[in-house]
Amino acid sequence: MRDMAAKLVVALVFIVLASPASAQTTPNARVDPIRYTIRFPAPETHYMEVAATLPTGGRATIELTMAVWTPGSYLIREYERNVERVTAVASGRPLSIEKSAKNRWRVVTGGAPTVTVAYGVFAHEMSVRTNWVEAGYALINGAPTFMTLADGVVRPHEVTLSLPAGWTRSMTGMRARPGVNQYVAPDFDTLVDSPILAGNPTVHEFTVGGKRHYLVNEGETAQFDGARAARDFEAIVRQEERFWGELPYDKYLVLNVVAANRGGGLEHKNSTVVIASRGTTTSHNAYLSWLTTLTHELFHAWNGKRLRPVELGPFDYEREATTRSLWVVEGLADYYGDLLALRAGLLTRDEFLSSLSATIAEVQSTPGRLLQSIESASYDAWIRYYRPDENSPNVSVSYYSKGRILGFLLDARIRRLSGSAKSLDDVMRAAYAKYSGARGYTPDQFRSVAEQVAGSSLGDFWARWVKGTEDLDYSDALTTFGLRFGAAAATGRASLGVTTRNDAGRLIVSPAAQNGGETPTPAGLLTDDEILAINGRRVAADQLRRRLDEYAPGERVAVLIARRGQLQSIDMVLGSEVPSMWQIEMDPAATELQRTRLTTWLTAS
Ligand SMILES: [Zn+2]
């Protein structure tokens, strides 16, 4: 705590003293930069070679550090484990370099004014926060790639990419320097916040509000309709500009890697990395999911990257940054991800309501919602959300899902309290105006903005559902908009009566809840049993639903399981699938006022 505070003061003082007027665009000439070159001598081996030339300031030793995590993804990832062959030289002379901590290296400079530290980085993890290098392209993230000086000084970081023959270009949110594939970040934060895609991407460009936007597709083939995706992305940008009133960046890039499996997105100040599955534009649902991911990530350019919890910046890249406000960052980005896609005309009203209903059903079937508050879920993201295990649903709740629902409930309440004069939209804009500067908001400050906009106390809302674990009450929100839950209709589908999970291809029975949850423990199946076959036929881990659909509730089946290594067959009677009670629909008795509120909400007109 003290270290973080001290670091903040040092950084601010430095900016004030050393960078008059234009710290972001003109790094101060008196501070020597770190210069990196990245080469790919054999990209098919998934390695890149990094050389960093560092100013020593005349010191006898310098200390280098690598980030152990990436902002936006809250888990210690020990990126330094992929670094190899670390050497240091000055004027062609080898220097002594040794590790001084798990993610630090100390160089004896011999008095040299600059030293060059070179290392190889293994880059073979396809995710939005790691590195990937293959014959055709590279996705480079800052945190897992760049060592920097551990002296806390704000200095420019310059990057030069030396691309293999056949690679034509690189794309990043960093400012370009004169020369091909050369960039500069005014500080280490910007370097970490500026992923790079290099290879032969297909680039779609358009301008909104005078700002250039780029949809950069790696892997755009006949299966991925890039032109349509760019048109729809432009509609999202226009909708978000309308929502916030301005675009807060000079340019914005979507680095979209079309790969085998979908891998989500990660936000940055003027870019996002998204991993899309190959069939994204050929499946309606997959495409909607991609579009709402883009809407969510772009929303973070305001909510998360600029308007932020006080704890999320300046970052200490060597230890966890815990905050109770991730539900504001992520849950509300999820809420608006769907809502703004709807307002942009990319989602129908039914699709919007059914997606919201699915999230409600998910939270209501998570027993942990009655044990863990959303502030605790935010705070413990590092040890819970990002490290799920078989008991997670019983003891924790997702700050994404519950946060999204809180967005819905809060929005409805503010609209009702203010006679439709105000909404959660106004809260986001007011919070942005107040807390998107050097300092972020505390949980109390965010609540206070919401109360000012609502013109009323929201103390009970926070006590019950933000700080507390009381079950959510949807009635006011539904009534506000003339909505209701449809009657829970029996699906007629068979069920084993237990919750299962796909554990690396094995179908495993999950523990039942201990706190009055809705997961019954049937006679027969026990926690950790591996389900192998039903009536003598193998059940693949991802095919249980399909296999159960071959039977009716009440039928007797033999379930072959492995229990602690011992095979055994259990005779059981199939139960009935529990029907969803959470499908939102229009209430036919809705009044004109309710219908008007609904339309205003969904169209922002
Ligand atoms: Zn997010």
Structure commentary:
The protein is an alpha+beta fold. Helix content is 29%, strand content 25%. The protein has 15 helices and 31 strands. An eight-stranded mixed beta sheet has the order 5-4-8-2-1-12-15-14. A five-stranded mixed beta sheet has the order 17-18-19-21-20, with helices on one face. Strand 9 and strand 10 form a beta hairpin. The structure holds zinc ion.
Summarize the structure.
This protein is α+β, with helices and mostly antiparallel strands. Helix content is 29%, strand content 25%.
What's the helix and strand layout?
Blueprint: H1 2-18, E1 34-39, E2 47-55, E3 61-65, E4 83-90, E5 93-95, E6 97-101, E7 104-108, E8 114-122, E9 132-133, E10 138-140, E11 148-149, E12 157-162, E13 169-172, E14 175-176, E15 182-185, H2 188-192, E16 196-199, E17 202-208, E18 211-218, H3 226-244, E19 251-259, E20 264-267, E21 271-277, H4 284-299, H5 326-343, H6 349-364, H7 374-379, H8 392-395, H9 401-417, H10 424-435, H11 443-454, H12 459-466, H13 475-481, E22 483-485, E23 494-495, E24 500-503, E25 506-509, E26 530-534, E27 537-538, H14 544-548, E28 556-563, E29 566-573, E30 575-576, E31 584-586, H15 592-603
Parallel strand pairs: 1-12, 18-19, 19-21
Antiparallel strand pairs: 1-2, 2-8, 3-7, 3-11, 4-5, 4-8, 6-7, 9-10, 10-16, 12-15, 13-16, 14-15, 17-18, 20-21, 22-31, 23-30, 24-25, 26-27, 26-28, 28-29
Helix pairs in contact: 3-4, 4-5, 5-6, 5-9, 6-9, 9-13, 10-11
The structure holds zinc ion.
